[in-house]
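User: Quick sanity check before I run a bigger batch. Here is a single chain. Can you write out its predicted 3D structure?
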Amino acid sequence: FSDRARSTSGGADGINNIEMVAQQSGSFTQFTGNVFWGTNTITHNFYSYYPFKTGAFSYTQVPISLSSTQTQVSNATSHLSSLDFLVSCPLSLSSTNLGATGNSVSINTNFNHVFTLLEIRVTTTELSRNIKYLKITLPSGKIASITSATIDISQSKPSSSENYILNNVVGNNIVKLLLNPNVPLTSDIETTTKMYLMINPSDLTSQAVEFELMSSDNYIYKFSKQGVKLLKGNRYRVDLNLDLFSKEKYVPVLSNPSN
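Assistant: Done. Predicted structure follows.
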């Protein structure tokens, strides 16, 4: 987005939600796409986000969501890229820093993560247990996953102790990680399977967070752990011992049992 830059050299000032394509993955990349300087006597503002969303909307109301059901393959982290959401620091360039009207734009910008990454490691002495899923339930009123919301990407990057402000948030307090295939656990915290999921950051200080796992032989394990303040762009490692969880056999409930 830009209030003054152009999508074509001879076009009108202003860009609304055009897609730029990253040339590589990683902490630094160049983007392909066409952006041109607008009227070069007027300050240009630039706003951007990832991943691209199709549609017409303002930079003050960019759609944002976070799935309540995520899927991890083995120990891989490849599922995280489709869950992530990044916002660039707003960039404002005065007329003394602009190129000639109609010329191609080349700028640098920094992106910041909106969500929080959790790395869960679970150990156990029950080495025959493979895990089908991990579910995290936050206290009532907290948002773990987001069905729909908007974000104003012109807001300044929050301080290191604060999170981005989201608007019109619809979501729930649960996020679930499906493990495909079912993953084995070990008694060693360094070698046991690492489970990665993305969660909406919130202040969980001194509040109970519920962890639930289901094994491949249909036992449900539950454990409660005191939370902390989850901050944007941070990675939190949570170590759990399955032997301390409560355990019960899962029994399906038939909606129309026969007589």
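The longest strand covers residues 174-184.

User: Great, the batch can go ahead then.
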